[in-house]
Every structure is written in structure tokens, then in C-alpha cells.
Amino acid sequence: MSTKYFNPYTDFGFKKLFGEEGSKDLLIDFLNQLLPIHHQIQQLTFKNPENLADTIAERKAIFDIYCESKTGDKFIVEMQKAKIKHFKDRALFYSTFPIREQSEKGDWNFFLLPVYFIAILDFEYDENTTSKFRRDVCLKDQDGDIFFDKLNFKFLQMPLFNKQENELITHFDKWLYFLKNLESFNHIPAILNEPIFQ
Q1: 148, 113 contact by CB (below 8 A)
Q2: Helix (H, G, I), strand (E, B) or coil at 105
Q3: Are 135 and 151 spatial neighbours (Cβ–Cβ below 8 Å)?
């Protein structure tokens, strides 16, 4: 059976949907559903997704999408179809590259701009704990107070998103339903009759 729309869980589909100059508005709209008010994005610039290590012996990182806002905030956006081991470790490792690239030669006061790692996963990575569809992670102290808000992780475990068309309330709900079901649509449902989805 042929499908009318592409699968956003493939490298081609994900890059077509979010990783091209002509689709920046889609990426901005999606990311702004995940970001706090003070980090909302107005403009984005795509950056080289291949981040080289300092030496040949070190491991490099290749991101699905790597972009920067007008204010300098960095965003790594990963779509992961197949389950892999130590995904949280990988997310932390990847986030070190946009942190390290901010260092300046000569005198530098160590000021850093925010880094976000956003993962859209077609699997559950944390079966051994209480499963949550969405996890927003930042550094907190022993009392649960935010210690550092410039390193953020957003994990979306798509198999745990089970809302049906009649249960969609927020714009974010609609994005998730769109991503999860796009390939199976014969036409865009009426609930998604908005310019961004059309």
C-alpha cells in the first residue's frame, strides 16, 4: 500500500520536514511548543551538523539538525527510530559540542549561551522507571530548585503519546498527533486545518 505523505521517522522525512531552509517556520513553530517563554525563537540559522573532535583519536558527533537562534541559543534536534543503548549518555555527550564551541581564545569570562538537546524517540528509553511521554530536564539542586537553566534536555517518547483526534486540545497535542500519524493520513484531518500543518 502506497502512502500519500512521507514518514517523519526516517532520515529523509525528518530532514524534509524540519531540516531545510524552506521548512524553518515548521521547526520554529514546533520548538516553540517545547521552549519556555524567555527562550522562544523568532529566527533560526542552520549550522553544520557534523561536529569534529579536537584530535583524530576522539569521537565526533553528527546531529540530525543543529541550529542557532538569533540570540545565540543552540539547538540539537534528534529523531531516533531504532532503540539504542545509553541514549541519555549520548544526549549528554552530544550537548558538550555546542558548549565547547562557545569557548573563546584569549581572555574569556566563561559566559555560556543556552543549549537545548531535543529528542523525538520512536521507542521507550526508560522502561525501568515510571514511563513519562515527555521529560524536561535541567540541573537542579537537592531541594528541586533550578541550579543552572542553560543546559536543557527534552525527551519525547512517541509510543507513549496515545491521544486520539477528538482528544487533541493544545497546539502541541496537534503537533504530536501530526508527527505520529502523518504517514498514515489519506488527507490532513480537519482538526489540523491550520496553515502550519497544511
Answers
A1: no
A2: coil
A3: no
> Per residue in 164-185, pLDDT tens?
999 999 999 999 999 998 888 8
Per-residue HEC secondary structure of 127-174 comes to CCCCCCCEEEEEEECCCCCEEEEEEEEEEEEHHHCCCCHHHCCCHHHH
Q: Which three cell numbers stand for residue 191?
A: 482538526
**CB-side neighbour CA atoms (13 Å) of 43:** 4
pLDDT surpasses 60 at 1: no
User: CA–CA separation, 130 vs 149, rounded Å?
Assistant: 24
Length, in residues, of the chain: 198
In angstroms, rounded to a whole number, what is the distance separating the alpha carbons of residues 153 and 97?
14
Nearest to 113 by CA among 70, 50, 52: 70
Cα distances (angstroms) measured from residue 154 to each of 77, 117, 121, 134, 157: 9, 6, 11, 7, 10
Per-residue pLDDT tens digits for 44-85 = 999 988 865 555 445 668 899 999 999 999 999 999 988 888
Q: Which residues pair with 65 in a beta bridge?
A: 77
Backbone angles phi, psi at 118, to 5 degrees: -120, 120
Look at the pTM and tell me if it is higher than 0.85. Answer: yes
Is residue 181 within 8 A of residue 174, CB to CB? The reply is no
Q: Which amino acid, one-letter code, is at 13? A: G
Residue indicated by cell numbers 569534529: 52
